[in-house]
Design brief:
The chain is an alpha/beta fold and 246 residues long. Helix content is 36%, strand content 26%.
Length: 246
Amino acid sequence: MSIIQTENLTKIYGAGETAVTALADVNLSVNAGEFVAVMGPSGCGKSTLMHLLGGLDRPTRGRVIVDGHDLSDLSDQALTELRRRKIGFIFQFFNLIPVLNATENAALPLLLDGRPQAEAHQKARAWLEKVGLRDRLHHRPDQLSGGQQQRVAIARALVAEPALMLCDEPTGNLDSRASDEIAGVLRQAADEWGRAVVMVTHDPRIAAYADRIVFLKDGLVTDETVLDPQKSGNSAYIETRMKAMA
């Protein structure tokens, strides 16, 4: 089942001679339980695509449909509610609140949605345990490593049980070991928890965790590659493709 799809998605900034096409007629579909990586050179439209998929920006033309909801048809209030309930966001910088502990940070989406504190904290603890932080429930961000902070951010993204996870360079601020651990958790989110995962990354090694790679250049999808998880050379292949696009 398609959790997110785009139809001729286009974003143009400015008008007339100064107009810049950041994204042009992108058609993309991601199913439940599928992990898709988006790659391309700087300025190719990756961030624009993520903003449009998450309803953080409106397209110039085309559509984004999330779990059966056409984002173009939603009011700002309805769009805010859909983001809170249907989409989990993960960023390069963890965006945790420093004075709150791991449980309190992970519970925030539910509290903002009006859920009782006891229920929100119970669900937050359950997701923190699933992402490997059973012994860090009461630690503040400054008491956690970078990888642990990103796990808190992942638990926060999953606590509302969204259909879709949007990950913008989720390993960009981590060392290689923590990066692999986080990529493994995202793989688990697709395989075990049935989420559709879309990840922007510049790292071929991390992209190799995905089921499929979408390559962008100059706002256009230039190629899509389905990865064979049994092959050991996926990251080398991706790196070669990226060098060819540069």
